[in-house]
Specification:
Two copies of one chain form a homodimer. Chain A is of the alpha/beta class and about 260 residues long. The first copy, chain A, has ten helices and six strands, in the order βαβααβαβαβαβαααα. Chain A is about 45% helix and about 10% strand. In chain A, strand 1, helix 1 and strand 2 form a beta-alpha-beta unit. In chain A, helix 5 packs across helix 7. Chain A is elongated, with a radius of gyration of 29 Å. The two termini of chain A are about 40 Å apart.
């Protein structure tokens, strides 16, 4: 799996909390290879407090005496920077570079390198980088928290890897014939309760149809709206008393309704 | 400016450090309206430590007794969730929703709502949300740090706003005639030093051309490569001694060269 070939390299991080937070971000985005170049004394207590699901990444991290050593087996070496001045004008965004990172990680190792919290990557670090990543940010506040910077890069790589499948609605978009049954029931209801006359019905129903057409309308949605209209008509017809057993709609095709 | 119409709403955040970190993320991404719904006692010292460029956002935050109050003037209300179960199946990613958020922020206010660190948004909170945002993450570790979750949403909105102009190379891509002058100088040099014979020259120059064609080659790049070849030829011709004043190339069209 190519995400396993992507190494996060932190150069001389100062705050343990940030290192822990980096580990959590990596775990969230499916990465696990963490290297620390030129390590300082790290507050491991703080790091462990922030690592959460990234605790194994934190414990498995490797220290290297130099950045050169930390990236020596990596093909692509991408240095993240907030500044874009001399030596940084060829910087590209994480979104632009993500496909290139994954392509390289398919056959070799890739390093994403982040400098210390106070000054970022120096030119001495940057010279080892084949690419410069500039993380988009407001001109008024361009310096990101270290873990935030790592998170954004990992996120772009993770998304580009295509491993994430988002939520999907179980209920398909309602076909026309189902929608028409619903509108027919609502038309009858709105006539019954005197919301409109027969001669205004088309006009009003255009309005109702427009409201319900603004977004996707699933089969479950149609069943809810149809059930509501039927239940109201039943209530009007029967007045006070028990509703019929099959009166309510089932909004989730199996669950017990919105109040379950 | 429509980013000013986008409010970050934190429901009962627990850790001051996270709130400060949220403020910094907002500042980085050009947002500044922070609301806290159902606030708990907050460690403001921790918050201020993490806020950095977001300190004004932290001080200007507004507390609301309920989520309903915090979002009452907002058209779109988007709730962020890591889980996608009941009531969350229509969730969409921040990238998918970002254009919709900006469209709504053009004419009205939009709230992005995030639950407390331990449990996220409850169904009681979610009922106020017109949309559900699911932040992409690994199945093995889907729970994000609160500030990381806010950062990713703000980042997507900021990028979609088109306000970020990335680094641009001042030097344009080199035109063919400039490249050809460079290759001619290198061809002479490689013949001079005996790297190739005249009968292998075409074969070797195909190799050199391929190396230099793999990526974009700017006019500055060509000047560096041409300068190197010329300088070497001069050195070979003159042996030990001072190089000529105009021998070195100018890699950045005005700066003092790579060692400046």
């Amino acid at each position: 799996m190519s995400l396993d070939h992507i190494r996060i390299v932190l150069v001389s991080p100062i705050y343990g909390g940030n290192v822990g937070s980096v580990c959590r971000a990596m775990a969230n985005m499916g990465l696990r290879d963490l290297a620390i170049a030129c390590p300082r004394d790290l507050d491991l207590g703080e790091a462990r407090k922030m690592a959460c699901a990234g605790h194994e990444i934190l414990e498995a991290r490797r220290d290297f005496p130099t950045l050169a050593a930390a990236v020596s087996d990596c093909g692509l070496v991408m240095g993240a920077t907030a500044r874009v001045g001399l030596y940084r004008q060829h910087a590209a965004s994480p979104r632009t570079l993500a496909p290139r990172i994954l392509e390289a990680a398919d056959t070799g190792r890739v390093a994403l390198v982040f400098g210390p919290e106070d000054h970022g990557l120096s030119n001495d670090d940057l010279i080892f980088c084949t690419h410069v990543i500039q993380i988009p940010s407001s001109k008024a506040a361009s310096s990101l928290n270290l873990a935030h910077a790592v998170m954004l890069c990992c996120y772009e790589v993770f998304l580009a890897s295509g491993q994430f499948a988002g939520a999907t609605e179980k209920s398909p978009e309602a076909p026309s014939h189902l929608r028409e049954r619903m509108f027919a029931v609502w038309r009858e209801l709105l006539l019954d309760v005197g919301f409109m006359d027969e001669d205004k019905a088309m006009h009003m129903m255009f309005g109702v149809r427009r409201i319900l057409a603004r977004g996707k309308l699933t089969e479950d949605d149609v069943r809810i709206m149809m059930g509501i209209a039927r239940q109201i008509r039943w209530k009007i017809e029967h007045g006070a008393g028990e509703p019929p057993d099959d009166g309510g709609a089932d909004p989730d095709g199996g669950a017990d309704g919105p109040d379950a």
